[in-house]
Amino acid sequence: MLDTKATETIHQGSIFGQITKMEHEQLVVCYDEATGLKALVGIHNTTLGPALGGTRMWSYASEAEAITDVLRLSRGMTFKNALAGLNLGGGKAVIIGNPQMKSEAYLRRFGKFINGLAGRYVTAEDVNMNTADMEYIAMETRHVTGLPEIKGGSGDPSPVTAYGTYMGMKAAAKKAYGNDSLEGKTIGVQGVGQVGKYLIDYLVKENANVLITDIFEDRLQAIAKKTGATVVDPNLIYDVEMDIYAPCALGATINDDTIGRLKCAVIAGAANNQLKDEEKHGMELLERGIVYAPDFLINAGGVINVGAEYLGDYHRETVYGLTEKIYDTCLSILDKSEKEQISAQRAAMEAAKARIESIGKVKLSF
Ligand code: NAD
Question: Which residues, if any, are the signal sequence (predicted)?
Fold first, then answer.
């Protein structure tokens, strides 16, 4: 048993303090001198099933920053997977380093570490990790998903993520305007990367008036030429009149600086962790009458896709069918938020936690 002094230390920001506060099951440290691999795996909650979440490779400024990131990201996966109705828990891995360090040996060593977790954690792509990297990891473990289609995998998850985001956006529009048509709505898409570009296709097809912004000028111009969307300067996107703001680039774009500038009725996009402060900015959106479709709810299409691949039951129609359900889930979360006068973010978190708790009880019986 811990003495009082030890307990105090734990709650003063140590690793165990963070894990206790964020309710993780496990934090795994992986190091290999031969390849220089330094990785962390966060397993947040496995009540619903193996913890699934991608691996992010990043040149973190410090080990503390990497630990915070893996804990935050793995926790987010628990709620995302639960709310998507998946029988998967939440986990995530980070590799500390420059993507140029990647080699066959480096990635296979990482795969070997993942294998050592015996299926408690299943990895996939995230920032700076691609389907080709998953192929190397798969040489050492079967607890990996998101493999290329030519290898029998489900390929790039971004089109499915975009479809789910589109469904969530339509549900939020229904809440705000009484019907879910996006025709004639002015929609600002921030980030025309993998998800953004597919989302824009759905919006253009519905005759929305699409504004686009990105820091990559060439990419922006190419999408504008292809779709007829109007280009907006990245610094001006928060000040433009629009009906719907769709963040599809970075996290934390809804913050003290931007929230008062946004002139929109709806926020619905794919970017992870859009609210800088979940509680504060979530409530502020409610008070300002802006309908917010929680990011981890509406960007779940990608994990629905790789989850189906991992569970060995991949059918594209079923995956799109499950992703389409984001529409109904989003509407029910927005109704709950309105009825209980709690932020949509909190309403979504509560629904995810309720599912984990109730299914956890079911699992207790044999
Ligand atoms: P991506 O890297 O392909 O695209 C992101 C785009 O945002 C890039 O074009 C980049 O230039 C642009 N960008 C970066 N900073 C910007 C800024 N300040 N202003 C405007 N544009 C900026 O990434 P993606 O796969 O399209 O993912 C987009 C977001 O959705 C990310 O937050 C990601 O975590 C999240 N997400 C993606 C998936 C998926 O399936 N790809 C799934 C769930 C969540």
Answer: none
